[in-house]
Amino acid sequence: MDIGTSRPTLFDGIRNFCGVSLVGAFTSHLLLLIGDSGVGKSCLLLRFADDTYTESYISTIGVDFKIRTIELDGKTVKLQITEPNQTEPNQTKPWNANFASQWDTAGQERFRTITSSYYRGAHGICVVYDVTDMDSFNNVKQWLQEIDRYATEGVNKLLVGNKSDMSEKKVVDYQVAKEFADSLGIPFLETSAKNASNVEQAFLTMARQIKERMGSTATNNTKPSVQVGAGHGVSNNQSGGCC
After folding, report:
1. Is the separation of the CB atoms in 174 and 190 below 8 Å?
2. Total domain count for the chain?
3. 20 to 30 A Cα–Cα from 79, which one of 49, 95, 105, 131?
């Protein structure tokens, strides 16, 4: 997606609100977290950004900002982590280098119109479910439909099964989820915000995939010059015409 020529989205307003400049020094990679309410999206963000965890669950309302700087493939990557609000599908209840923004949408209707803008602005989307809640896994298909409906074509996706530490209550088999993700051609990880298992890996996996895709897109969009005589190059993106 060409951010420079696209219509302004809510991402632009939040970037301006934060006072973060994306001109020149940064490449913007925006990452969205979606999934049913209670699957642990906010806890994943808190663990990744602050390396903390709380048993107290408070459903995300409004927008919260978190920023963390990491090293990715030898380069400094700045991640802005943000949580807008979002309803569950079909329900009425309530980075110098690459610059990535993580947005966690809480699962509560009045925010649906707003959050559709976040889908359109995202470069990568993590779909999170709870390994102890079969309904949250079954709803992944609906969340994927939301992506198909609102997000930019080609957006990177990652399936995340959270709460892997609760093995005694686990109802979603790893292999079942893995085969489902493989059938869609998207990566899959089980995580635990409580003990930090695979949380870092999940965010790094998404950040790296976005980086690779955006780099590939930039390469494909760079048109080679056509050599005309010795030492003269004519770009083949010039307007043509008969002489």
Report:
1. yes
2. 1
3. 131
Residue 34 near residue 127, CB atoms below 8 Å: yes
The two beta strands, 64-72 and 75-83, are: antiparallel
Question: What CATH number should be reported for the domain holding residue 193?
Answer: 3.40.50.300
Please, where are the H alpha helices in 41-139? 41-50, 112-121, 134-138
203 within domain boundaries: yes
Residue 201 exposed, middle or buried by CB count within 10 Å (0-12, 13-18, 19+) = exposed
Q: Is residue 199 part of a domain?
A: yes
What's the confidence (pLDDT) of residue 49? 84
> Measuring CA to CA, how many Å separate 148 from each of 118, 143, 213, 242?
13, 9, 18, 43
Residue 194 has pLDDT above 60, yes or no: yes
The Cα–Cα gap between 241 and 56 comes to 68
User: Residue 224 domain-assigned?
Assistant: no
pLDDT for 47 beyond 70? yes
Is residue 46 situated within a structural domain? Answer: yes
State the pLDDT confidence band at 103, using cuts at 50, 70 and 90: low
SS (HEC) of 88-108: CCCCCCCCCCEEEEEEECEEC
pLDDT digits (tens, 9 = 90+) for 116-147: 777 887 888 899 999 999 999 999 999 999 89
For the whole model, what pTM was predicted?
0.71
